[in-house]
Amino acid sequence: MFTSTDGWVTCALGHRHWGRVGAAGLLVHRAGTDGPELLLQHRATWSHHGGTWGTPGGALHAGESAEHGALREVQEELGLTPRDLELGPSSVDDHGGWSYTTVLARPLRDIEASDLRLDGESDGVAWIALGDLVSVPLHPGFEASLYRLHDLLVA
Questions:
Q1: Which domains does the chain carry?
Q2: What pLDDT, on the 0 to 100 scale, is given for residue 68?
Q3: How far apart are CA 117 and CA 74, in angstroms?
Q4: For residue range 61-79, what is the model confidence (pLDDT) as tens digits?
Q5: How far apart are CA 24 and CA 12, in angstroms?
């Protein structure tokens, strides 16, 4: 029997998070003319931290790996499949009792943001250069993780 892991939890740091057993997202990146470009989701205004840009992601299922959860979420939210992506390293943001894992991935084919199928959790999607992230409102969790992700993106 499937038990939903959707729901709010409070971590050891006192923050409220979605996903009773943690969450994961996929950070798709490619080489651009001015450095790395990131495929980011513009979160629907009704969602937690709506109107911000971040990785497609969400609550993990019980027993699900972060990699599987991140791939499932990017397929649900943007229509990308495991055949479209090559998984790379991961970065864990551990809050004590709750964590968010960002799984990096490179596209195995040309991916144009305008060709992606968005679900109701996204108001848009775009390739944004790493150096241009200051020009858009970022999801606070994603923004706080950038110092860890930066080294993985430029390696």
A1: 26-154 (3.90.79.10)
A2: 95
A3: 10
A4: 988 999 999 999 999 999 9
A5: 18
